[in-house]
Amino acid sequence: MTNDKSPLSDALQSALTALHIQDAPLLVAVSGGADSVALLLGLCDLRESLRLQLTVAHFDHALRADSAEDAQWVSQLAAGLRVPCIIGRREAGDAPHPRPLSSEYRGEGGSEMMPEESARKLRYGFLRQTAKEQGCRYLAVAHTADDQTETVLHHILRGSGLKGLGGIPPQRELDADLTLIRPLLKLRRADLLSALAAWDQTFLTDPTNVELQYTRNRIRHDLLPKLRAEFNPKVDEALERLAIQASDQQAAIEQLARQLLQKAVIDVQPDSIRFNRNEFATMPVAVIREALSLAWQQQSWPRQGLGFQHLDHLASMLVNGTPTKLSLPHGVEAACRGNLLELRKSKRN
Amino acid sequence: MTNDKSPLSDALQSALTALHIQDAPLLVAVSGGADSVALLLGLCDLRESLRLQLTVAHFDHALRADSAEDAQWVSQLAAGLRVPCIIGRREAGDAPHPRPLSSEYRGEGGSEMMPEESARKLRYGFLRQTAKEQGCRYLAVAHTADDQTETVLHHILRGSGLKGLGGIPPQRELDADLTLIRPLLKLRRADLLSALAAWDQTFLTDPTNVELQYTRNRIRHDLLPKLRAEFNPKVDEALERLAIQASDQQAAIEQLARQLLQKAVIDVQPDSIRFNRNEFATMPVAVIREALSLAWQQQSWPRQGLGFQHLDHLASMLVNGTPTKLSLPHGVEAACRGNLLELRKSKRN
Question: Which residues of chain B have a CB within 8 Å of the CB of A250?
Fold first, then answer.
């Protein structure tokens, strides 16, 4: 391979600039697959111009007999690029794979076994700890525009609703000192493969990418090719646009909900909150529901069991003043008195 | 068949009540297929209790040699139910079938021929004229919850964006005197088939339902069964919920955009409009874009060519005051002066 600048590096530079990343210690998660190898090489191209201090992290899920060889391969790749490399490995005491999927993901089908969640948890635990130990401010992962498309389609089929349609965000704060970034999110997997071919760089074709098994694999290798061939050759762009619009509109509703709360909340106590009903009169019900959900969250009351119907009834109570009393989950009681609406949580719950 | 009340009639009664329909002259579009036959029988059950004056309309697309027999069958069905029946027929001078699909529907694939649009146009032309001649205030069509699901999925795949996700509305004003209603929109096709079986009522298995050919047929008979079997047995409900949320959120954005315009528009002339920029300061960009699109529409300026990017640049100009000038499609120029933003359309365009 050479270190010439490539179109990949240009796109990567734009992404890092948009994320305001420069002169920063950055941990790169590398499975050894095409996406993460392309990410690593692309970042190496930019390490001088953007003054990046790179460290590679690889997690060995130990699900295959030869997985240690993958770890070895990644170590050698990093050494060749003069980047420090930390290898983690699943220990005998860690949660076993595979285990039954959590109910959120199981859907109605029920019996499917998916190790994704526990594998992901272990790997991210290792990555966060390593970032902390190495003093890294950012953790870069190799999700692409194809991952984005697949996620949006997965969420549509699973029924995650409009919030799930927003897809994968380009960055997410993991804690006060560490931000997860996805600088390849606008790039297609095909472009990464071209870049790797131009660099004459090999990659592992079967890394321990357990997350892609089951549903995601079927979306990638069966459903999406069928949709492109039989329905719309540009279905990927269609899904990506939908995701952008959905997260844009969701952001608008959330911003308005926060503004509404600022005006409408009269008094906050740990076990109660009081609203001025007049402020809600001209607001669309979607914004009122979002504001009530946000207020509930700010009280740190348990969110589980509080459904769309509860929020909808509460919104209608705020606007119409009827009913005057409503019981909500976790012992929260809503009561209307004139222009006031009070939510109060009983101490027993 | 008998005229006993059925669960279908109960659901239909709820739908008509929600649409405030009672004591009204109502034209029922009947192809002779299961959905429209069930609609007609269900409405007949309610004609006394809701004082409905029913008339049947059937359009013979004359695409098959035996299509006149279908028309005859529908006439006899209506006669048996003591409902007047008007038959329309495509004439030699009408637009031929099939013709190339309009570019909006053609997508990138390009070559597919689809007669849907022209067939639909002819049929709706006949239905509207018949409603007028018969003095009908409502036109009832037999779209079901399955049509809704298929439409949402079709829009997702075609890339209609978030607005297209709203799906089929339960009613739509065709003109000042005629409203299209879809009282079966919450009912599954399987429920209609059960009701028909209970009534011992036959129906045509291959009516001239040209709209369901091509893409829609593949969605109904191939894609949706695959999604239910391999991804989520409740995918229909997931798509329906998504449609409800999307149209709910879209309605919120539109309501806020109208409120914003009321506050922010200072002066309107046929060829110009002026805004107070201060009103936009705390508004989310999604609401500002919608308000600008609405203002443009209220001026009756041509909408074609005005894209997301134009609206986005204009929104940013409103909020930031820069750039101070912007050229938009159809000779519209935007200019910022202090707290004012003016849109002016040159007379030449």
Answer: 249
